[in-house]
Amino acid sequence: TTARAEGDAAGPPLPGYVHVYSGKVRDLYAPVDPVTGETDQTRLLLVASDRVSAYDWVLDSLIPDKGAILTQLSLWWFERLADLVPNHVVSTDVPAQVAGRAVLVRRLQMVPVEAIGRAYLTGSGLVEYRERGSVCGVSLPQGLTEASRLPEPIFTPTTKAPIGSHDEAITYEEVVAQVGAATAAQLRRLTTAILARGNEIAAQRGVLIADTKVEFGIEPDGSLVLADEVLTPDSSRFWPASEWVPGRPQRSYDKQFVRDWLTSAESGWDRHGEQPPPALPSSVVEQTRATYVAAYESITGRRFE
Ligand code: ATP
Ligand code: MG
Description:
27% helix; disordered N terminus; binds magnesium ion; single chain; alpha+beta; five-stranded antiparallel beta sheet; 6 helices; seven-stranded antiparallel beta sheet; binds adenosine-5'-triphosphate
């Protein structure tokens, strides 16, 4: 049954690897040396599943190909960001069982901050702006509205809460207190640079990247590395540029179909209750899959096979 995801739910067994962790979407494995039987402490196989989460629940329903789309799109971006920031990718040579949706990565000490960048104002950023005229301590011009373009991308970090609890907005000073001034400055600079570069590239394909969340890890030598996934429909809001009209909510290439159905009368589910959400109707699964494929294809200009 669906549960508020538990961090250590066993991933499917994978010969030659030991399962170390599962997040809402990814299963992490460490390679095991076939001769000595020793676990490699320096690398991880990051396997993106077809799981989908919404409102802090991992649903029973899977979205076919979602894991492969997230992995392939992240790889596409890592390449195009490589001159801005080093990334965790070691190899895409992975077991056949997980081909296309897994990468071998450097195992990093993850920075305990969700590095969020915003280029347009929406969601929780808009809520905070309306209350205070600022987001995460960044003051913004007056008169902005839903989906307004910001003068420049801003850094609006949150805590990285354990699964089942909520990430909370924090100020830049709080990031400094957590990770030190030098790392905080790098997080801010890199996050906004990734979003700016992302928008430059996506604009050529008629896509706006409203906001995104990136995660960084630290190498044993102290250097900061871009990890996890990057500029995917799970971590970002992508809007078709041709439909962009500030002042109203935008259509987005993401799991909005899932959220809309779960909160509709048809699902019969109470978002604020304790009961897990019901399985998704196949039409919602299919629309969501099509949206993820469309995000991949419009941004990369490649066909998803
Ligand atoms: P979490 O489980 O951390 O709350 P999540 O549900 O979004 O977040 P997933 O994306 O499903 O997590 O799983 C990916 C996990 O792997 C995350 O905890 C992420 O921080 C971690 N991770 C990603 N890249 C690396 C890396 N290179 N080294 C170590 N951990 C990593
Ligand atoms: Mg994640």
